[in-house]
Amino acid sequence: MRQSQGYIRGIAILVFIGLVMIIFLVKIFLLQLPSKSRKALIEIAKQNIRVERLRPERGYIYDRKGRVLAANKYVYELYVTPYYLPDTMIDVDLLANYLGLDTLELRKKVEQVYKHRNIVPFKSRLIARYIEPQNAAKFLEQQYKFQGFYLLQSYMRYYPAHVAAHALGYVRLADKKDIEKDKYYELGDFIGKSGLEAYYEKFLRGKKGVRRWLVTSTGRIVGPYQGGKTDTLPEPGKSLITSIDLDLQRYAEFLMKNKPGALVAIEPKTGQILAYVSSPYYDPNLLTGKDLGKNFNKLRSDHILSPLFNRPIQSDENPPGSTFKVVQALCALQEGIINDKTVFFCPGGYYFQGIAIKCHMHRTPYVNFYYSIQASCNTYYCNVYQHFMLNKKFKSVHQAYQTWYNLVWQFGIGHQLGIDLPGEMPGVLYDTTILNTAYRGHWGFHDIVHIAIGQGKVGVTPLQLANVAAIVANRGYYIIPHLGVKIGDSVLTYDTNYVNIDTSYFNKVIHAMSLVFEPGGTAAFSKIPNLKACGKTGTAQNPPSTGKADNSIFIAFAPMDNPKIAVAVYVEEGGPGSQTAAPIASLLIQKYLLDTIVRPDLYIARVKDKNIVQKILARENAKNRSTNKP
Predict the structure, then answer these.
(1) Beta pairing, strands 240-242 & 61-62
(2) Helix or strand holding residue 52 (H, E)
(3) What are 83-116's pLDDT values in tens digits?
(4) Which is more confident, 13 or 229?
(5) What are the CA-CA distances from residue 118 to residues 86, 89, 114, 219, 316 (Å)?
(6) Residues 166, 310: contact at Cβ < 8 Å?
(7) Are strands 534-540 and 565-571 parallel, antiparallel or unpaired?
(8) Residues with Cβ < 8 Å from 166, sequence gap 6 or more?
(9) pLDDT of 187-217, one tens digit each?
(10) Quick one: 501 and 471 in the same domain?
(11) How is 36-77 classified by DSSP, letter by letter?
(12) What is the pLDDT of residues 477-505, one digit of tens each?
């Protein structure tokens, strides 16, 4: 027993000696440091440092002429430090009245702070955001009545032009996933979640500043760390100049009002997008401020019109209809399947081994190449496709189809174009591998002949259609369609893509497209006086079981020589392409190239009173009433 006690005493003495030696060594280390560093270390050892991130102002977004599309406005955030609260509850009603806040919501938050006031009492807590400057001024005049409460200036995204919601996108508070993915973000930070706001987020967000405070172990601020010498100011985000023409964008949205679908206008030589409309559209300011969540849920819950759906880049199962005949013609010319002298007989439809594809009657049943595009003959292009797929230059239909597929792919169909917006869809264009799987290896041209007229197993986004128009306008190439032109001081560059089709064939197709606006053409009614434009109508059928009307489609560019604008209009349930989409495209071209509307009658006759949204809502509501009957 005595030996055991002696052993324990010996261990205790050794531990004591060890501690003395450690303290001695630390003192020697501190004495060897310069006096300033030694004092700093001692100060840090006694107290904690709180790091406060200073949020930068988000970069502005401008149109091509320098007009503001996205800006920031000053707002305030309300904070409270529990330690400084008075013992009795503050006058919450009065505080809410000054700050323009909901009384019940504010009361719940203040009561929670009072309830837990002794847990980290010196840590400030955010109570409310988006307080308007005029309300902040009222509070500051009476701040002495609300001990422990204070305001900090912040920013709120604001879209002064009230247009281009689907192109611009929106910002919202960063969530847990955002914070885990990027260490830049903390709770309370904002992040771009869609559109340009998301795509250029790392440039627009800027760089945070840092402010360091010395605090006690309970969180009470002692003062700035090292007198503020290590603090840094935030750097504002970089500005983004876009290709959007604000005047044209406003007019495009005006024309697409009450017409579900999309409109995209491109400057062919640069790939810059001049107007970008997804309809139904909404004021982008709905997705800012304190009502963002409520408005977002309301927009998202609309399953009939789907206003949040970004149609120009996400609606990729749309059949292109007869606009696809432009691509078919170019592919067939390139492969020598037809030439501009080729004539096919049209008896009012295409008939082959039980297949019947109707066509409208023409001024002559003998349709030549130029008239086939001018009058949009289905029979002509079904014959073209048949001759392509069964041509003896190919070993099989499968080889012919793959050759055709490779040419069509070059037009930007069946894959993403690479626009500077998140969420772009690729469209629908099946290669032989997919078709072999779908038909278990047994298929022929008759199984896919509807592709000849832009129906069946092919789908495009409205952006891809606008890009096709730009390719034809450029006689064989396109620059990736884009919205961003300049970020900060850096000019953005984009790749050029060429289509392996001879320029001479583009000239033949362009001449045919110019006839579309002439007498006998499908868009003759939309002709622009004294301006040579080129276009192609399209009408895409919806399955009869849906009860939906045909989709109205039109692609165009102008002028014919040295084109300045290429347009695609896709109006869901708009009827024939000549009835709705073509007039809209014509009016848009007039606005951009002539800076005036020389055909106001066109708007009155075909656009003004066409409220397709109302018809869709009436039909869907009738369905719901029928379904809900007892």
Answers:
(1) parallel
(2) strand 48-54
(3) 889 989 999 999 999 999 999 999 999 999 999 8
(4) 229
(5) 13, 15, 8, 12, 57
(6) yes
(7) unpaired
(8) 195, 276, 277, 278, 281, 310, 311, 312
(9) 889 999 999 999 999 999 999 998 888 877 6
(10) yes
(11) HHHHHHHHHHHSEEEEEEEPPPPPPEE-TTS-EEEEEEEEEE
(12) 999 999 999 999 999 999 999 999 999 99
Decide if 27 is inside a domain. no
Say which residue, 37 or 305, is predicted with more confidence: 305
Phi, psi of 356 (to 5 degrees): -135, 115
- Looking at the structure, tell me whether residues 210 and 274 fall in a common domain: no
Please enumerate in sequence order all residues whose Cβ is within 8 A of that of 75, keeping only pairs 6 or more positions apart, or say none: 129, 130, 131, 132, 133, 153, 154, 155, 156, 289
Which class for 144: exposed (0-12), middle (13-18), buried (19 or more C-beta within 10 A)?
exposed
DSSP 300-342: HT-TTT-TTS-HHHH-TTB--GGGGHHHHHHHHHHTTS--TT-
Those residues with Cβ within 8 angstroms of residue 76's Cβ, 6 or more apart along the chain or in another chain = 131, 132, 133, 135, 136, 151, 152, 153, 154
Contact 538, 323 (CB under 8 A): yes
Give the separation between CA 523 and CA 586, rounded to whole angstroms.
9
If asked whether residues 68 and 154 sit together in one domain, one would say yes
Contact status, residue 346 vs residue 359, Cβ threshold 8 Å: yes
**What are the phi and psi torsion angles at 357 (to 5°)?**
-120, 115
Q: With contact defined as beta carbons under 8 Å apart, do 535 and 569 qualify?
A: no
pTM for this entry: 0.89
**Paired tokens of 62:** 């401008």
CB 386 within 8 A of CB 280: no
For 177, the domain range is 52-242
List residues bridging with 150 in a β-sheet.
79
Find the length of the chain: 630
User: What is the DSSP code string of 223-258?
Assistant: EEGGGGTT-B--BPPPPEEES--HHHHHHHHHHTTT
Cα-only R_g, the chain: 34
Cross-strand bridge partners of residue 79: 126, 150
3-class secondary structure, 78: strand
- Residue type for 104, please? L
Q: CA 444 to CA 355: how far, in whole Å? A: 13
Two tokens at 497? 């893509």
CA 454 from centre of chain: 26
Q: Is residue 44 part of a domain?
A: no
Sign (positive or negative) of CA dihedral 274, 277, 283, 288? negative
Instruction: Please report, as a single letter, which amino acid is at residue 405.
Output: Y
Q: Which residues contact 559 (CB under 8 A, 6 or more apart)?
A: 531, 532, 533, 593
CA distance 317 to 459: 4
Q: Determine contact, residues 416/425, Cβ cutoff 8 Å.
A: yes
Scan for tokens 């055709």, then name that residue.
404
The total of structural domains in the chain comes to 2
Q: What is the CATH number of the domain that holds 89?
A: 3.90.1310.10
Note whether 124 and 213 are within 8 A (CB). no
Q: Are residues 95 and 222 in the same domain?
A: yes
- Do 196 and 344 belong to one domain? no
Task: Please give the full DSSP string across 384-397, using - where no structure is assigned.
Answer: HHHHHHT-TTSSSH
Using the 8-state DSSP alphabet, how is residue 611 labeled?
-
Which residue in this structure is represented by tokens 């297949």? 355
Using DSSP, state whether 222 is helix, strand or coil: strand
404: CB partners within 8 A, 6+ apart? 331, 335, 388, 389
Both 443 and 473 in one domain: the answer is: yes
Beta strands 490-491 and 484-487, pairing class: antiparallel
